[in-house]
Amino acid sequence: MKKIDKYIASSVLWAFLIVSVVLLGLDFALTFIEQIKKVNDNYTIQSLLQVILYRLPGKLAEYIPIAALIGTLMGLGTLAATSELTVMRAAGMPIWRIGLAACQPILLVSLMGMGISEFVAPIAEQRANLIEKFKDQKSGAFSLTGGVWLKANNDFVYIDAADSNGTLYGIKIFSPNKDESAPQDQKQLKYTKSATTAQHIEGSTWQLNEVTETYFFPDRIETNSTASAEWNVSITPENLFLSSQETETLSLSQLLRYQTYLQKEELDASQYELEFWITALRPVASLALVLVALSSVFGPLRSSTMGGRIFTGVIIGLAFQNALNLFGRMSVAVGFPPLIGVSIPIIICLLAGIILVRRRG
């Protein structure tokens, strides 16, 4: 039985690898065709190829559930076409044993995908983002451009840019009046500060340079300037960096840390929570789709052609991905936990796969 298990597992694994290579190849070609129009003197074809290659690890981790579905359909479908599955069933091998053998390589690659999502893809994706941000600049000094808004210690902070050394440029701090006993017309703004640059000293301490402070009183406005001032704020270089990145480019640990920071500042962290659960539940989603594929191979796709199996796998994969996006985004819009939104399509696939496999067995 162990030899048969290895044979089934190797068939599914090879089919999974072939599907992954095809999906990544198609993604590479389509992205290259779409992005070629951005090539200029500063953003060369070599830079474009670097960006696409850097993003391939993240794409691989993202495609694992769909590749697992199509790979299982192809691997087991090939065995069904040569009547090998029929012989295994005739020899007394139950469907659940065949499914267990098919799930083993998928579980292994799913765990490897988690490792890629945590340690490889974020670094590669962030390097790709830096190359893209440098394309309109003569030098690669800036790692964050276009401005970012943050909330820290109940103040609202705008940062125009930051370089790779951690220096901030164009900082504006808006502090609302926190006095609850103040009249309604005096609760708008207490003071503003602006600084040309800022450097991180240690912990929560920053040094502001060329500072202009404006204080708002009931009967007057006062403005003064200083060469430098100390700024104690909960913003750390790491939080600043994470705020400038797309949620899809962050690792699980980064998503969790920045989610905790946003919740501490009483800000909406639902987008980061949603991305966290989509990534964390990817192995479960892969196994759920393998069960669906298993029930299809022993059911309506038993005598189907390879092209028919691939087409069916693509349709099921697209439907699952769209359902995952739909329920996930709906959870953010409606306000219920993203974990529930992400879990709904996965649970539906798991239940459907289990019920169908039991009927076939």
TrEMBL record:
Does the keyword field hold Membrane? yes
> Pfam families, per this entry?
LptF_LptG (PF03739)
Domain of life the protein comes from:
Bacteria
How does the entry describe its membrane topology? Answer: Multi-pass membrane protein
| Gene Ontology terms describing biological process | lipopolysaccharide transport; transmembrane transport
Task: State the compartments where it is located.
Answer: Cell membrane
Transmembrane intervals: 12-33, 63-83, 95-116, 276-298, 310-328, 334-357
Q: Name one GO cellular component term.
A: ATP-binding cassette (ABC) transporter complex
Asked if Heme is a keyword of the record, the answer is: no
Entry-linked InterPro entries: LptG, LptG/LptF_permease
Keyword field = Cell membrane, Membrane, Transmembrane, Transmembrane helix
Q: What PANTHER family is this protein classified in?
A: LIPOPOLYSACCHARIDE EXPORT SYSTEM PERMEASE PROTEIN LPTG, SLR0882 PROTEIN-RELATED
Q: Describe the task this protein carries out.
A: Part of the ABC transporter complex LptBFG involved in the translocation of lipopolysaccharide (LPS) from the inner membrane to the outer membrane.
Assembly mode? Component of the lipopolysaccharide transport and assembly complex. The LptBFG transporter is composed of two ATP-binding proteins (LptB) and two transmembrane proteins (LptF and LptG).
Family the entry assigns: Belongs to the LptF/LptG family.
- Protein name as annotated: LPS export ABC transporter permease LptG
- The species is Marinomonas hwangdonensis
Which gene carries the instructions for this protein?
lptG
